[in-house]
Amino acid sequence: MPQSDRTARLVFLAGTDVAVDSRTGRMAVAAARDGWDVTILSPGAAGEVEESSLGRVNLVRVPVGTALRERAAQRAKGHRLRRMITQYGLTGPEQLSRFHAGHGAWVRQSTARAGTLGAPARQGAKAWIRMRREAHRMRMRVYRWERRRDLQAGGPTGDWRTDWPELLDLDLALGAELEKLRPAVVHVHDISLLATAALSSARLRAQGVRTRWVYEIAAPTEETEYAPERRASAYRALEREFTGRADALTAATGRLAASAPGDVLLVPEAPPAPAPADGRGPLPAVRNLCGLYGAGPLWVYAGDFSGHQLETVFAALAQLPDHHLALVSPDPVPDAVLALADKQDVRDRVHTPPPALPGLAHTYLASADAAVAGCGCAAADEPVRDRLSAWYVQAGLPVVSACGQGPAAFAKTVAAAVDPGRRPSAEERRAHTWEHRVAPLLALYRKLGGGPAPVPRPELGWDGEPLPVPKADARPARPVPTWTPLTRRTPIRLGMGPANYAGQLASFAHAVCRSRPDVSAQVFMATAPGTFNYPADVYLDSSKLGRLTVMLEQAERVFRNYTHVIADAFLPVLGRLNGSHLEDDLPALLRTSIKVALLAHGSEIRHPLHHMDRVAHSLFHDAPDGMVDRLTKVAERNRATAERFGLPSFVTTPDLLDDLPSATWAPLVVDVDAFACDRPVMERRRPVVLHAPSKRWTKGTDRALPVLRELDDRGVIEFRLAEQVDWTEMRELVKDADIVVDQFAIGSYGTFACEGMAAGKPVVAYLTETVAAALGEDNPVVNATPDTLREALESLLDDRDGTARLGERSARFARKYHDGTRTAAVLADFLR
User: Fold this and answer.
1) For site-directed labelling of 510, which of 46, 320, 330, 591 has its Cα 20 to 30 A away?
2) Does 589 score more than 50 pLDDT?
3) pLDDT for residue 513
4) Is the pTM value of this prediction over 0.85?
């Protein structure tokens, strides 16, 4: 493999599934941002290798067998025939006790019987008794010998291969996958995979692959309880054998770094850097949630309450009568803690506000005046304390600790700390961000990888999800609309997905956020190979929506972040967590405070049989075999879902009000400015007539083509048929046209017609009575059927000045109805 390919590949070895907020996951995402081709290998359940993704990071779960563990267990049992001889009939203490009792009873009876015999017979009986006693003693010696072997085999030997053969199974499975990847750098995050990293790297080097590996130091094995002892012995042996071979060592805490041999790169825990405030509405603040508007200084303690010297903190609070303390915890504050506050008579100044979510901690804490650091001394607490301290500093709070101080001294320390001049500087806050702390690790990767630094890939989205990278053979994506990315600074956080047909959700998000500074939005879109990737914040691979990690990530995204959800096309918004239809997700969604609305675009709610009754040239008359039956079932189920749950419902075209009368029309949104043009209409001798079907049968194209081609053959018009054309080229075709012909099989006008009107072109389409009534006098669309198309076009050609004025009227209509303003107004009630 060429060097340029290898230098960009980085593999993380993890012992368990990795979440985006885990230490390994955050390192992997940071490396991916830096340009590396990142894969996380971890052991999985039996079966086939399972691949998924964590944003731009590849996740590979490798099934691990048990062959070597079972072989070792079989060997530990010893030789079967020998065990049958030495242990036969004595499989436990109860059997051994019965055997001893039986032998003793026999000896007593035999010696008593020998006493009644004559001299010659008595001597023979005594000899037999002695022989039986000796056989019994021999049997016990052999039995105890086998038992000693069992005990010795069960104890640690100091050889990790013997003490914990499961490690060999791990190496056999993950090592093979690791060597297939031929990475430039391997970072191992679990002691059980230490041998895999070392051995595979050595094998790759023997093959000429320049692979380096890094070991993340765990807590010292001698201080960690592992059961059985043989496992702890194996881990100690692993560290002795392989730690010194690593090309570099990393650690999360200074204590771990000090315990390791050689130089260790310290990568302390920290949350991501907070986003800058945008001034859009009040920020969530712990002071306000405590009801302390304008009150005295506020301390904040966020974290676990076990093992901390809160008695000292409460006693110090008693000496500062104008101060307050907020206890922030993801769980209810224990009654025992509040009892301590009662004991110091400060319960009225100890507050328990709702907990802060990790992504909100910076703004949540910033309204306090000082932070109390945890006093726990356990090694396991150190990474948690590091992250909390980083949160405090990023929030601009001075950090104080009661460890080693009495109440009076601690009260004095806090009184000095709440001085505004003691707040951390901008440089200090930056030094406590994850981006700053992980930078030396990224530099280490580049140093070990050799050659130039990898070329960075496109940026990730706001939550670590990748923005899509178009394939070489893919149609170019539409320009990404600008909408306010999801942020907890806005009281309304709108999630929209997962269909995003024709990019309408992206356009809705742009329209709503443009008119509503109190709304931020996130569009999530399910994609499939070969589909058009319209703008979105999050892209979900449809083929992976049934995978547990993907479903859980999507569920966390929805339940943790959104206040409102617009679910389009009746598709599930939680992946396949509950089923394949939105109605499977609704019970879970409606048990929360999230407001849910439904959005329909067309065939998911349009009833084929009813449509054929209403529209003479209905598209369903020309539908492929089986399509009518299938779409009838879909429409009936979706309408039943809408009626059953009674949620706010919206449709993007007014004809769908016939199929869902309870809905409200939220007009299609197009980029009116992108299509606006000042090219004159109807000034050419042969006006250009444009028709662009996505699928011919859905627009009645074959019914209209004879008329259009005949007029073209006669030289009356220049007919252009645009199929499979990308958006940029289509925009130019629309601007260059004189008349746009949309559809004759649906009964309403679609996105293509809206774009034509935005460009100031007269549009010809078939409209039902429902649509015509919804548009009223503003309606500029020339209503025609395939039978009246010729007459409509000839009328437009005969009155060229009137047709040009109709184009101007169309442009005004598009700006009034389809630039997003009206759509945002329609959604306003739902978004309250």
Assistant:
1) 591
2) yes
3) 93
4) no
For residue 780, give every residue at least 6 positions away whose Cβ sits within 8 Å of its Cβ, in sequence order, or none.
Answer: 757, 762, 763, 806, 809, 810, 813
The mean pLDDT of 810-824, rounded to a whole number, is 93
Adjacent-strand bridge partners of 492: 519
The domain locations on the chain are: 3-63+161-266, 83-154, 286-426, 492-665, 676-818
Longest Cα pair distance anywhere in the chain, in angstroms?
147
The verdict on whether omega for the bond into residue 284 sits within 30 degrees of 0, i.e. cis, is: no
> By the 8 A CB rule, do 3 and 451 touch?
yes
HSE, side-chain direction, 13 A CA sphere, residue 784: 27
For residue 403, give the nearest of 378, 425, 428 by alpha carbon: 378
**Who's near 311: CB < 8 A, 6+ residues apart?**
340, 344
Between CA 311 and CA 318 the distance in angstroms is: 11
Which alpha helices (H) appear in 155-279, and where do they start and end? 160-163, 166-181, 194-206, 229-242, 254-259
Q: Are 360 and 285 in contact (CB under 8 A)?
A: no
Let me know: does 35 contact 8? Beta carbons within 8 Å.
yes
Q: Distance of CA 103 to CAs 50, 84, 115, 132, 547, Å?
A: 61, 20, 19, 9, 64
Least confident stretch, 350-359, 510-519, 663-672 = 350-359
Q: Which amino acid is located at 696 in the chain?
A: R
HSE, CB side, 13 Å, CA atoms: give it for residue 205: 12
Task: Give dist(CA 436, CA 215) in Å, integer.
Answer: 21
Domain 3-63+161-266, CATH 3.40.50.2000 — does that match?
yes
Distance between CA 365 and CA 344 in Å, rounded? 25
Query: Tokens representing 327?
Result: 């206890």
Q: Element (H or E) spanning 412, and its range?
A: helix 407-417
* CA angle 750–752–757, rounded 5-degree value: 95
Amino acid letter at 521? Answer: A
DSSP 554-576: HHHHHHHH-SEEEEETT--SSTT
545 φ, ψ to 5°?
A: -70, -15
Return the SS3 of 139.
Answer: helix
Please check the confidence at residue 182 and state whether its pLDDT lies above 80: yes
First-to-final CA distance of the chain? 58
> How is residue 571 written in tokens?
């598709």
Q: Do domains 286-426 and 492-665 have the same CATH topology?
A: yes
- Strands, sheet with 739-741, edge to edge from the N-terminal-most edge strand: 718-721, 688-691, 739-741, 763-765, 782-783
Burial of 539 (0-12, 13-18, 19+ CB in 10 A): buried
Bridge partners (DSSP) listed for residue 214: 187, 248
Domain 286-426: which CATH class? alpha beta
Give the bridge partners for 639, in sequence order: none
For residues 506 and 499, give the distance between their C-alpha atoms in angstroms, rounded to a whole number. 11
Residue with tokens 């627009």: 699
Q: Which CATH entry fits the domain spanning 492-665: 3.40.50, 3.30.300, 1.10.10, 1.10.3470?
A: 3.40.50
Side chain identity at residue 631, one-letter code? L
How far is Cα 826 from Cα 832, in angstroms, rounded to an integer? 12
Reply yes or no on whether the pLDDT at 73 is more than 80: no
Residue 81 has, within 13 A of its CA and on its CB side, a CA count of 0
Residue listed under structure tokens 């184009």: 807
Q: Which two tokens stand for residue 255?
A: 């204590």
> Are 818 and 666 spatial neighbours (Cβ–Cβ below 8 Å)?
no
Cα distance between residue 71 and residue 483, in whole Å: 60
d(CA 329, CA 331): 5
Name the superfamily (CATH) of residues 676-818.
Glycogen Phosphorylase B; (3.40.50.2000)
- Least confident segment among 329-338, 461-470, 672-681: 461-470
Measured distance CA(274)–CA(363) in Å, rounded: 8
- Closest C-alpha to 517, from 279, 171, 818: 279
